[in-house]
User: What shape does this take?
Amino acid sequence: MNGEFIEDCIKQNHDYARHVFTSTVTWFTFFVGVNYLAMSWFAASKGEGGPNALPMVAVLFVVQNLLALIACFVIRNNFDQINRRILKSQAKLTRGR
Assistant: This one.
């Protein structure tokens, strides 16, 4: 394979990994803000908003955090795949020189 093509593939994989990481940090910043909002609502709530409001928000809070854990595992697997692709490309590049 052409060395320049392999180097370009490696660069694109690095750029993609950077983009995924930046997007992840952005989304988790948003969700941390939502979690703090929910916690402050729990702290300030004294049963206002009806008897079903507090349990409903608690369930949504738990579901959101479970989804965040699932997202972390998916993103980790994504990074592992990117790492394997980069290592394969680097091996091809070093064998070709």
In short: The mean pLDDT is 84. The longest helix spans residues 53-96.
